[in-house]
Design a protein that fits this description.
The protein is mainly α. The chain has helices spanning 8-39, 42-69, 72-95, 100-132, 136-139. Helix 1 runs antiparallel to helix 4 (100-132). The longest helix has 33 residues, at 100-132. It starts with 7 loop residues before the first helix and ends with a helix.
Length: 140
């Protein structure tokens, strides 16, 4: 395991995965609570949970096939960029004090985009790790 962390690129990648997963986990926890706070309605909480879960169930296997056809690094960078833009749009909409219906629509849209890109990112991370790790790292 020490060999995996020798390279600065590997350390940087590991740090990015940790912060990425922490941010994704916080958003999947906080977003439904924000929706519940805004709408005071459990149905919207259920809808946002479905929006966050459904892409993983539907796109999990096709994302693996897509990852095999394209450059994994580019998929990781592109998905992180799209999620960053989504989070910035969500933050800007919270700061602009939009109507409840407009806020709900933006939250649903950003949540769907983030969930789809999370699916691509998760599958790509699994593929990318195999490029970082050599068999000899685990034989010692």
């Amino acid at each position: 395991m020490k060999n995996i962390l020798k390279s600065n690129n590997n350390k940087l990648y590991l740090l990015s995965v940790i912060t990425d997963n922490l941010g994704s986990s916080l958003m999947s926890f906080a977003l439904p609570l924000m929706v519940l706070d805004i709408t005071k309605n459990g149905i919207h909480l259920s809808i946002i949970s479905i929006i966050e879960t459904l892409p993983i169930l539907i796109l999990g296997l096709p994302a693996g096939a897509l990852t095999d056809k394209f450059d994994v690094k580019k998929i990781l960078i592109f998905s992180d960029l799209i999620r960053l833009i989504g989070y910035l749009i969500l933050s800007a909409s919270f700061l602009s004090h939009l109507t409840v219906n407009c806020m709900i629509f933006i939250i649903y849209a950003v949540s769907l985009v983030v969930s789809v890109t999370n699916t691509l990112n998760t599958v790509s991370e699994i593929t990318f790790v195999s490029f970082l790790v050599e068999k000899k790292d685990f034989l010692n």
